[in-house]
Design brief:
Blueprint: E1 5-9, H1 13-25, E2 29-33, H2 36-46, E3 50-54, H3 62-71, E4 80-84, H4 89-97, E5 102-105, H5 110-127, E6 131-134, E7 137-140, E8 145-148, E9 151-154, H6 157-168, H7 176-184, H8 192-210, E10 216-219, E11 223-226
Parallel strand pairs: 1-2, 1-3, 3-4, 4-5
Antiparallel strand pairs: 6-7, 7-8, 8-9, 10-11
Length: 239
């Protein structure tokens, strides 16, 4: 795998030094930034494999940093783990909808944070299997892209994993709790609303680029499953 590069964007100097020292001992190549603008600049210069991003930053807050990096072709695939004293579900949903991979609320233990970081890397390497053919979609796990009939779209890491996990299960219904476990990869303190919100965003992207969002069916009281869209002329609507 090589030596993973970790960028820590944190304005609390003592915490930044502690995190830098801990992850350096674990074998990471670490850079730090003390505000949002420096975090953006170092992302492009350092090309990290993962970013630990505080939300309450000077100059440019963490939400703005995440939104900007996820909008750029060069940086949108970099996983982001948000660190914050804000622990409300609305804040978590906002961060995840912007493309963050995980969300840790302060105070946290270094051991917990390290486990979350390793979990993100583990999911990434497990999904580096190349291309998956599902219905009429080509799903490329290395590029986080989906293509159909010459049209391509790029998804956030979370939305891509949702589609990849559902498509790889050959139409099996997956519960929200199972998707939380398979997609986020840890014992999340998140609720079903997180899954529903990400599914909604994924469907919106599929509809905007491919013209339809019928690949993901809601199974009432059970969860979601991937399904091939009906051929022209077939009756029946999918939710």
């Amino acid at each position: 795998m090589g030596q993973e590069k970790l960028l820590i964007v944190e304005d609390e100097a003592d915490l930044s030094r502690l995190l830098s020292s801990s992850f350096t001992r674990e074998g990471f190549l670490v850079e730090t930034a003390a505000d949002g603008e420096e975090g953006v600049e170092k992302t492009f210069r350092f090309s990290p494999d993962l970013i630990l991003l505080d939300l309450l930053l000077p100059k440019l807050d963490g939400f703005s940093v995440c939104r900007y990096l996820k909008s750029r072709e060069e940086t949108k695939a970099i996983p982001i783990l948000m660190l914050t004293a804000k622990g409300t579900e609305e804040d978590k949903l906002k961060g995840l909808e912007l493309g963050a991979d995980d969300y840790v609320t302060k105070p946290f233990s270094i051991r917990e944070l390290s486990a979350r970081v390793r979990s993100i890397f583990r999911r990434r390497y497990q999904s580096d299997a190349g291309k998956l053919k599902a219905a009429d979609l080509e799903i490329d796990s290395r590029q986080l892209s989906v293509a159909r009939g010459g049209k391509s779209l790029f998804l956030t890491p979370i939305q891509f994993r949702l589609l990849y996990v559902l498509a790889s299960q050959k139409g099996r219904v997956m519960s929200r709790s199972e998707l939380l476990d398979r997609v986020w990869g840890f014992d999340a303190v998140l609720t079903d609303r997180v899954v529903d919100a990400q599914i909604k965003r994924l469907r919106q992207t599929l509809r905007r680029v491919l013209g339809e969002d019928r690949y993901i069916k809601t199974v009432r009281g059970a969860g979601y499953r991937f399904t091939a869209p009906p051929e022209k002329g077939e009756n029946g609507s999918l939710s």
